[in-house]
Amino acid sequence: MLSEARTHVPEITGDLESTEVDNFPIWEVFTQKKESDVHLHAGSLSAPDASFAKQFAREHYGQDQECANMWVGLRESFLSNDGCDESYEVFVQKNAGSRHEHVGCVEANNGKDARDKCKKQFIKGDAFYTIWTCPLSALSKIESDIDMIWREATDQSYRLARGYSKIVRQKWDALRATKSVDKYQSEDLKETF
Amino acid sequence: MSELEKNFHAPMMNVLLCVADDKLFLGHRNSDWTGIAPILEADIAFSSLAQDDIAHSSAFYELISSVTGQNPDQIAFSRQINEYRCADIVTKSDQFNWAAAIARQFYCNVYDYIRLQSLSNSTWTPLANLAKRICAEQAIHVDHVTSWIEHLGQGTEDSKNRIQHALDEYAPFASMLNESPEGIEKLFDGGVLINEGCLFTAWKEHVIQIVNKSGLTVSIEPCSVVGGRNGKHDEDFTRSLAELQEVFLTDPAAAW
């Protein structure tokens, strides 16, 4: 049910002259479920700067499953061939459609060099689809031991698909238990057709 | 101590209701923005934080329930208007003005944080433990909304004017967060809560520090009226309560 306020949402959504709000840069987000897991690509988001990108990533990708650590970087920095002499985190996508997975860190002169080194050090002739690289200086790291991501003070299972399915299944089982299956099905058929 | 003495029950329930009611109604009000916040990610984040607030309120209703034996849903949804203890800023309509929603969130989140810090020093351990755990999460809420205040304050002339106007408009209602719950002195005198000085001063300093850092100003006066903490509520509260109770009251005994 909608609250009363929702029945009075103004139709004009704003009187801003600029529509620039729709043109924020895209950020890529990697999450690590447990300390022992690798960082996997979780998805992307649009945000005006790194500080908002972190805030949004924590609420968006950090709350749909348990999350130990999280990395956020501009999409551009993952794809660029350029850059300078520094450490690069490297990520490999094994097949089209699969998620990029963090494989390690290399010292390189630029993005292209980091990709070449990733092939040599981590892929070693195996099949792969794409490689992303990101200079450490362009990656914001949210580490849960100093900056909380996933919250556990209260029961958060309602945020999880499995939490939801567990509760719903219990309710269905309870409902079914009150009637015989035959009776339930005949009522269901009657109501549906 | 893990058991609360009987003569502290009434004032302590009053204090716990202040926290739980603030968070329940703030979470409810903020969830109005689900689907229509100004940008997609702000929408997702604000909804996530609203869910958190409702989860936090539920934890406090359960703590009350552990003492009084009442059902937590009954406590949350089936009291009379004058039995609710929230400060009415939490139900003040923002008229779908994002700056107003952020200003309301800012004042309330900082207050919740300071109050939880103080409650985590309680000598009643179930409360101290719960407040400590929730306080760690409340820090995220403060961090998030601080980011908004800074961005709006240091954004464009337009964003600065909008957030400044909203901060000014809500400041008098924000002060009412500091209205004392009835009987709290009894808890201080009995050593159940630790009176570390004025929450108002700590809250005001924290608020002013962030506001000034963001290139904005605010003038905050101590609360001098009797309001929500003592059960005296305005129309926006009454409307919010009716919304919240509508489904529950169709069948108060239903299992959810």
Defining key terms:
heterodimer, A: about 190 residues, alpha+beta, 2 domains, four-stranded antiparallel sheet, three-stranded antiparallel sheet, 7 strands, about 25% strand, elongated, B: about 260 residues, mainly alpha, Ferritin, about 65% helix, globular
What this model shows, in words?
- The complex is a heterodimer of chains A (193) and B (256).
- Chain A folds into 2 domains: 24-152, no CATH class; 154-193, no CATH class.
- In chain A, strands 2-1-3-7 form a 4-stranded antiparallel sheet.
- Chain A is built from 5 helices and 7 strands.
- In chain A, a hairpin with a 7-residue loop joins strand 4 (86-93) and strand 5.
- With 193 residues, chain A is α+β, with helices and mostly antiparallel strands.
- Chain B is mainly α.
- The longest helix of chain B has 29 residues, at 40-68.
- At the A-B interface, helix 1 of A face helix 2, helix 5 and helix 9 of B.
Topology:
The complex is a heterodimer of chains A (193) and B (256).
Chain A: E1 26-32, E2 40-46, H1 50-60, E3 69-74, H2 75-79, E4 86-93, E5 101-108, H3 111-123, E6 130-135, E7 139-143, H4 161-177, H5 181-192
Antiparallel strand pairs in A: 1-2, 1-3, 3-7, 4-5, 4-6
Chain B: H1 9-30, H2 40-68, H3 72-77, H4 98-119, H5 125-153, H6 157-175, H7 184-189, H8 199-213, H9 235-250
Helix pairs in contact in B: 1-2, 1-4, 2-5, 4-5, 4-6, 4-8
Explain briefly what this protein structure is.
The complex is a heterodimer of chains A (193) and B (256). Chain A is α+β, with helices and mostly antiparallel strands.
Q: What is the helix/strand order of chain B? A: HHHHHHHHH
Could you say which structural class the secondary elements and strand pairing of chain B correspond to? Answer: mainly alpha
- What integer is the average pLDDT of chain B? 94
Beta-strand percentage of chain B? under 5%
How many helices of chain A does DSSP assign? 5
